[in-house]
Write a structure and sequence with these properties.
The protein is of the alpha/beta class. The protein has 2 domains: 225 residues, 3-Layer(aba) Sandwich (Rossmann fold); 47 residues, Alpha-Beta Plaits (2-Layer Sandwich), CATH 3.30.70.20. It contains 11 helices and 11 strands.
Length: 290
């Protein structure tokens, strides 16, 4: 079973929910957690995992043979990222940091002057704690291809999941609704949308649920810090009822969650009373998927 944890707005508590659910799932089933918030991965911190490098991630980029180049500029004209700078009468200049590896320039070159090489865009790390196997992707500083790194994390995780015979795959996505999030959600069995009782969080929640509906993936809402603004919390409940989306869990705002972050432990280990909340979320997911 593949479950994605997302939410649209940053800071709503996605990673807290993902790591806590992973710990609870791992008590009964072999569980893998994918941290695909590749620009700022931090699940290893919340689980006190000592991560180890598993594999580097590379992206194809063009390489010029200027002995064949006729200075026609067609490569620059097809580059939508403006990674190729061309001045008439001169050889094209290539800015590899903004290249996304589409290979359009290779196809467009009429002289066969452009071949393919590669650049490093990220790293995949692995680790384990609390019986949870963690696979974490990390985008290289300055690179733009976060969606490609997410896709590679998911692709590489397949062999690990098969080897471990894992039953549960939890995917902790980035915030937003862009390519990295879409790459996190596709092919999953269930989406947990984590929100909080604020207007901006509700706005972003609606956008994420649009994606869930677009991909026809079953989903539910978890309201974190629900007791900070009970009046607006009811607005989220009204939206959930109107959109026929189940609220599968609500989490109070307590100092234990701050302590968990500082001590780098899952909140269910800081205070076992929270185990009930996450077990109820798991039960709701199981009922929905059945």
């Amino acid at each position: 079973m593949k479950i994605a944890v997302t939410g649209g707005k940053g800071g709503t508590g996605k990673s807290m929910v993902a790591t806590s659910l992973a710990v609870e799932f791992a008590k009964n089933k072999k569980t893998v957690l994918l941290d695909v918030d590749v620009e700022c991965p931090n699940d290893h911190l919340l689980l006190s995992v000592k991560k180890k490098e598993f594999v580097k991630i590379y992206q194809p980029i063009p390489k010029w043979n200027f002995n064949k180049c006729n200075k026609c500029g067609k490569c620059a004209s097809v580059c939508k990222q403006n990674a190729i700078v061309f001045v008439k009468g001169k050889y094209p200049a290539f800015v590899k940091d903004i290249c996304i590896g589409c290979k359009a320039c290779i196809v467009a070159c009429p002289y066969g002057a452009i071949s393919e090489t590669k650049k490093e865009i990220g790293t995949i790390y692995t680790g384990k704690n609390y019986n949870v196997d963690l696979i974490s992707g990390e985008l290289k500083l300055g690179e733009l291809a976060s969606g490609e790194v997410v896709a590679e994390v998911r692709k590489n995780s397949e062999s690990i999941v098969k080897k471990l015979k894992s039953e549960i795959i939890l995917i902790d996505s980035a915030a937003g609704i862009g390519c990295p999030v879409i790459a996190s959600l596709v092919g999953t069995d269930y989406i947990i949308a984590v929100t909080e009782p604020t207007p901006s969080a509700l706005h972003d929640l609606k956008r994420v649920l649009y994606l869930a509906n677009h991909f026809q993936i079953k989903h539910g809402i978890v309201i974190n810090k629900y007791d900070l603004a009970k009046e607006f919390y009811r607005e989220i409940e009204k939206f959930a009822q109107k959109s026929n989306t189940p609220v599968i869990g609500k989490i109070p705002y307590k100092k234990d969650f701050v302590d968990a972050t500082i001590k780098m432990k899952p909140v269910v280990e800081i205070n076992p009373n929270y185990q009930k909340i996450f077990k109820q979320i798991i039960n709701q997911i199981n009922l929905s998927i059945k």
